[in-house]
UniProtKB/TrEMBL annotation:
It comes from the Bacteria. Keywords: Activator, DNA-binding, Transcription, Transcription regulation. It comes from Modicisalibacter luteus. SUPFAM superfamilies: Homeodomain-like, Regulatory protein AraC. Pfam families: HTH_18. This is Helix-turn-helix domain-containing protein. Residues 157-255 form the HTH araC/xylS-type domain. Coiled coil: none annotated. The keyword Transcription regulation applies.
Amino acid sequence: MSFFNLRTCTLMQQYIAHEHSYHQLVLATSGVTELQIEGRGERITRERGCLIPSTYHHEYVGDGANRTLVMDIPLANLGLTSCADEVGRLFERPRFFEVPVALYQLANGLLPQVEQNMALHTEIATLILRAIYLNLHDEVLPASPLQARARSRLDLKRLDNFIDTHLGEAILVDDLASLCALSPGHFHACFREHTGMTPLAYVQQRRLAHARELIETSGQRLGQIATLVGFRDQGSFSRAYRRAFGVAPSTQRRGLDH
């Protein structure tokens, strides 16, 4: 019996927003996923992983080409594991962390066993968690001023037009960066400095603003509106809408009908 739910997957080009009752570790061995936890977002790559404590709201969209290792840690099983103390400290708060080369090589080498041998999942999960615990340290990133030339390429009007035209589709940082002739990493940093939010959060903000306009001015069903603004299902849409505006979309529509 495994105390962990360990799996490999490819996170698709679909915006997802939710929270869950278990801790979660996300590591990538290839590709990119844009992930945001309670308003703080980063890119999950082979160099960056993340730890998501239970009940923390998070949102993500993959590039459709990633290979991602996901570990769910049910709290009910935590006391039964041999690394309960380490896990408790790791998940004291949400965090993104640097993935050292040795950890990447370990995770990448274990992926075939994760996929083929469920009986080893507890041992594999314990090994990965302990490796992260030993390597993790508080990262202090020096604040380096971004070049004014790069910032000047952030044409928000052009970006807004692109986002609004593609609301029903997956919108990746790579797409937005290409419009500004910047690398995705540089664009992400410039965008956060310029707007105070991540590109993923900005796209979500425009999706939900458009959804509110449709709720107020059209008779379309909520499920249709959710699809039009790029949500996979009405449940994800409703949760994100409630967090943004403090009211469920169905409640807002009923209020307009009275």
